[in-house]
Specification:
- This protein is mainly beta.
- It is 7% helix and 38% strand.
- It is built from 1 helix and 10 strands.
- Strand 5 and strand 6 form a beta hairpin.
- The chain is globular.
Length: 138
């Protein structure tokens, strides 16, 4: 199946309300459509900096604004979409074969990523020209 930005959706995660603070729990394959093999987060991103600028061959991700806000620009080679994340109980589900750039980080933003695979440098496509070649092969 050809990758499409239209297959990358914002998922609402369960939120348990409590006067003393809310909680969101994520269980493998219950709230998200893949099993979590890796978790990482970005923080202390200086104002004006852009992160990402790559795609993955096989990796599925759920990207969450654990704190603050940021924009994710996703691109499938034909269509481009910008999604703003700013609530910790919503996450962007990103499929393989999607170029992504992360920008407009608010002060104190924490970007949390739940990933379907352990880190593998060979899964990354780090130049947009290589990405275009990759999607043309699909």
């Amino acid at each position: 199946m050809k990758a499409s930005v239209f297959n990358c959706n914002v998922l609402e995660l369960p939120k348990i309300l409590n006067r003393s603070g809310n909680i969101t729990a994520i269980n493998n394959t219950d709230e998200i459509p893949f099993s979590i093999k890796r978790v990482y987060y970005l923080y202390d991103v200086p104002g004006g900096e852009t992160r990402g600028g790559h795609a993955h061959r096989n990796l599925y991700q759920l990207i969450v604004a654990a704190s603050g806000s940021f924009d994710i620009v996703i691109n499938d080679g034909k269509n481009k979409k910008t999604i703003t994340l700013n609530r910790p109980n919503y996450g962007l589900y990103v499929t393989p074969g999607i170029w992504r750039e992360l920008e407009n980080f608010s002060s104190g933003a924490v970007l949390l990523v739940l990933a379907s695979l352990p880190y593998d440098e060979n899964d990354y496509i780090r130049s947009f020209d290589s990405f275009k070649e990759f999607i043309d092969e699909e």
